[in-house]
Predict the structure.
Amino acid sequence: MNAPVRILVVIPVYNHGRTLAQVVRECRTIHEHVIVVDDGSTDLSEDLVRGLEVPVLRHTHNQGKGQALMTGARYGLDNGFTHMVSMDADCQHRPKDFFRFKSAVAEDPTALIVGRRDFSSTWVPRSSRFGRQFSNFWFRVQTGRSAGDAQSGFRAYPLFVLDQLSLAANRYDFEVEVLVKAAWAGIPVKAIDIGVHYQPSGQRVSHFKLFLDNLRLTRLNTRLTLRSFLPWPHKQLLEKNPREAFSILRPMDGIRHFLAYELSPAQIAWAGAMGVFLGTLPLVALHSLAILMAAGFFRLNKIVALGASQFCMPPIVPALCIEAGYFMTHGGTFLTEISLQTLGYQFLDRFMEWVLGSLVLAPVLAGLTFVILYIAASAAVAVPQGD
């Protein structure tokens, strides 16, 4: 981003007429560019709207918080702004924390900044604590990153991100979807600490529908998680991800390819080691799923992990595990008879030996893989491609 940073504060509102004027007034004292997006409220009088003295964009009916934020984003893009800071209208957020976002945006204009609410300094509803933990966990599974507070509505969005991402959600699930897809697109997702204030339960206005909105979030997380398991690359807004497969037939070419995309030798080695570790375990019909989920959670390259796991395909590694398990359970002797009796009728015995042997061989083979890949990748750094 080469354009000078211009920030627009957007306050989406739906039936928060009691607190909106105070939030807008405090925002206007700290920043000159503030707008309100009225998402079909029924409690905002014309006198109240005129008294805000800021532009008010109005939906004729309630379309959801995500749609309100996108309306604000389009206004920002049309008027030459580069960033949008969103803030809730219920007095939960402290407008003075805007300066923290302003500093964070200046430090990295490409980052999506999330306000990490301080839950230690005030009374916080249990639902908010659980919701943050739940969303943070699934964000980590889907992206391999930490969001800090995936449910916080106090954020700074680079407007080019909202303009270029394909987003389907338009209610509370929007804030989860945009975080995940931005991370997939190579956008840095950073957290800064902010204050938070929750009004007593009798005074707090919340439009979160316990059943419907949780159903939407569940459906969204299911879709995003399944997509995250696929090693197919995502659309990149800042950088490209490796697109070629890691082939066991041409390992050095694959290693050079991933090094060219700024994967370090250690990152390649860790991904390969994890693929071999899980590939050695008897996760029948679940190896790829387990590897993709673990790679996403630990932010390791899925293609390298899946490629390395192919070394564990039957029959060699499973046979070694069975022999190791047999050796440990039969007084130091090896299984030498391969027959219908030993592999058919005694299948359960062999499977248990496979499990036992894999617990020993998985870390050993993973360790060897790490060493080999690390040495090979380190050597490949200095070797021109094609040599």
